[in-house]
Amino acid sequence: LNKKTISISIGIFFLLIIFTYLLRPVYFDYDLKKEIIKDKIKNNFRLNAKINGKISFRILPSPNLLLENVILNFDKNDQKPLTIKEVHVPISPLKINNIKSLQFKKIVISDQKIKIYSKNLKNIFKHFQLDSKKKLVVKNSTIYFIDDQKSEVIFNKFNLTEKFSQNKHQINGSVLFSDNKINVKFLNKYGAQKYLKINIPKLKQSMDINFDPTSTLDNLSGELKLQLFESILLLNFKGKDDFIISKSYLRNKFINSKIEGKINLKEQFNFDLNLGINQISLRKLLNYYPIIEKDGLSKKINGKLNILIKNSDSFFGKIRDIKMQLEFENGDIRITNLKATLPAESKFKSNILILINTNKQKINFNTSFDSNNTPKFLRKFGVYDFPQKNSSLYLDGEIDIKKNNIKFKKIIKNNNERLGKS
Questions:
Q1: 26 or 415: which carries more pLDDT confidence?
Q2: Which range, 225-229, 310-314, 369-373, has the best average confidence (pLDDT)?
Q3: Greatest CA separation for the chain
Q4: Residues with Cβ < 8 Å from 177, sequence gap 6 or more?
Q5: What pTM value is reported for the model?
Q6: Sign of the alpha-carbon dihedral angle for 223, 263, 185, 130
Q7: HSE on the CB side for 223, CA within 13 Å?
Q8: Range 243-248 contact pairs with CB under 8 angstroms and sequence separation of 24 or more
Q9: Over the stretch 93-133, which tens digit does the pLDDT of each residue have?
Q10: CA-to-CA distance for 195 and 173, rounded, in angstroms?
């Protein structure tokens, strides 16, 4: 015996004691005690869990329980709970005498495929409002978001972490969608303003929402600022499923407008908004954001815009007092009661139906034009010999979008003269 041998022996002895102590949970009978594990998850994380698979103990990288085939309910009324193949629950190494004494630190979901249904989003958001001080962590997982029409949107490399302190709760997340990384940050200062920020650095797009201190999921209110494709949209909102929009605006290099009205998110996205446009370059706007695309508009965009444009520049002069109702219905566009004051004491009225989501994309229209100074108006088109000062023209027709041709069904001149094919 010498000092070196004694020191090594004492060190090995203590390591064996620690190792033997840490291995105790390996021999627990978890299958008989599943109810205890479920109750601990419910009490610590306020989650309803059903464990259909095995429960085992892992000592590395730190002591934790591995739960297999777990069904997680964020609310007891969830119709489509989360089904997760593997869930890790780190435990405190100081209290592992028996299953009842185990202390859970957090729930870790790593490298999993998770299906989330739109109907459950509200319950998930409610869960993150709870002041449980116990963390839910998601690492490098794939999220399949499924809406009411069973359409599936896939988000890759989803990561989420929570931080708690004395006066605030912070959530940080990131996800990869269409090769673009999206960062999410939510900050909830207890009794103060709540803040949500979403940004896509690669595309230089972002959304910032400042919630009022009294705002809850049952009565949301605050200010949303969206920066998207060189446009800035600001919405002051208040409501639950039906949101009142006030003192809001949309601005970019083509348009400057005020927004008021309602947005409905109860079953599907729908809106009824008043758009007061102070300034617009209509031709440049339509060239930059074409209404008619090859694949048409999304059928999920439904609603109407009541539009008032004070004035707009055109190649034949200023157009004033433009009024119209723009309706979006299942991917088609209807323009009703379009009225405008044109140069040279002229007026324009029209109703237009743009059918995009059909095999035969077309535009149906009926238009009337009245002028008290027709010769002056027609000079902009290079016509200098029109003899009649007062005139009117009514057109009813159809535009074939793919073939680029117009079929006139009816042309009436000066209210009583119907023009034939010749």
A1: 415
A2: 369-373
A3: 127
A4: 153, 154, 155, 156
A5: 0.75
A6: positive
A7: 8
A8: 245/273
A9: 878 878 888 888 889 999 999 999 887 777 787 777 665 66
A10: 14
